Amino acid sequence: MDFSSKLLENAVYEMSQLPGIGKRTALRLVLHLLKQPAEQTARLSGSLEQLRNTVRFCSNCYNISDTEICEICASPKRDRSLVCVVEDIRDVMAIENTSQFNGLYHVLGGKISPMEGVGPQELNIAPLIDKAKGGEIKELIFALSPTMEGDTTNFYMYKRLEGLDIRTSTIARGIAVGDELEYADEVTLGRSILNRIPFEGSLKS
Amino acid sequence: MDFSSKLLENAVYEMSQLPGIGKRTALRLVLHLLKQPAEQTARLSGSLEQLRNTVRFCSNCYNISDTEICEICASPKRDRSLVCVVEDIRDVMAIENTSQFNGLYHVLGGKISPMEGVGPQELNIAPLIDKAKGGEIKELIFALSPTMEGDTTNFYMYKRLEGLDIRTSTIARGIAVGDELEYADEVTLGRSILNRIPFEGSLKS
């Protein structure tokens, strides 16, 4: 693309560095900002800078937090013996939305992925093991996505936890509520039969 | 969505004000920035602010430009008697990419759209009429998108230009090069038959 303005070219280039934003979309977004009052651009760039420069992570669960300890970890109503291990803050938000979980979280910050150069030391796995050795935790729920990287990460954590008196579990894989059987993939359907649950168990929700 | 951090919520909100960016996408983009070095966020917000605060428009054609007169308007190689009227800067870039046009442009900044509260006075139509009255322009090409708003804008400009010794034209509508006839919509196919061109004319490209 040939730009008539160097400033415009710069802004479009930086915008297109965001994931899933190509040059054309970036140009559309930047031109939109130009049509809006200057305050909107100021608010956008200000809020991004402020977040990036003052962002803090809860020192217990590594969730993004404005305080030293996040609200969930600080709450006395939460079951501190149950910890759900997730990939990032979006998973915390998704699980919180279900209102079905009353324990604490531990945010790993990613999955082990040799292809992308992410090893165990890039993730918050060591603090998790330390926490587990503390003795307060009775059960760890591995709630990573069911991909090869997720399974690898689960297995690595499982191995590191060996010898500790802690139950480990993963979230149930199976047919999604409301899904048609015939459209489910074979692996999911196969697992949902292997890991079938007593009918009485399916009645509570 | 429940955010664990007010700063994060702010940044996601401002990001989601951009067109086509929902809350979920905004969250993904913001979390991506958090994983990158702080310099990337600084460059993004800096380039946006700089563009927004120092943006200038060519005083002749209203294209975005870093100088008083844009490169195209300043070029002595351009045919100043031929002016292509477009909606915004993206259209200038698209037409420039074809290398088929050697005249100047005039950027309206939008189309007349009563639904969105855009009337002729919100667009750069008055300066176009003034330029037309100057006598240098021999032909105006209306290159707006073939929608109801585009046609309305074309007709409005056409009416305002009445009495002036200027030819007006619109870009050709027809079957796109490489398209299959059977998949073309009726209106386009119908017009392409009505506005058929001598076969010799189709040989030059």
UniProtKB/TrEMBL annotation, chains A, B:
GO biological process: DNA recombination; DNA repair
Domain Toprim: from-to ranges: 81-176
Alphabetic keyword roster: DNA damage, DNA recombination, DNA repair, Metal-binding, Zinc, Zinc-finger
Cytoplasm in keyword set: no
SUPFAM superfamilies: Recombination protein RecR
Molecular functions (GO terms): DNA binding; zinc ion binding
SMART domains named among the record's database cross-references: TOPRIM (SM00493)
Entries under InterPro entries matching the protein: DNA_Rcmb_RecR (IPR000093), Rcmb_RecR (IPR023627), Rcmb_RecR_Znf (IPR015967), TOPRIM_dom (IPR006171), TOPRIM_RecR (IPR034137)
Keyword Zinc included in the entry's annotation: yes
Zinc finger motifs (C4-type), residue ranges: 58-73
The protein's role, per its UniProt record: May play a role in DNA repair. It seems to be involved in an RecBC-independent recombinational process of DNA repair. It may act with RecF and RecO.
Family: Belongs to the RecR family.
Listed name of the protein: Recombination protein RecR
The organism of origin for this protein: Pelagihabitans pacificus
Gene that encodes the chain: recR
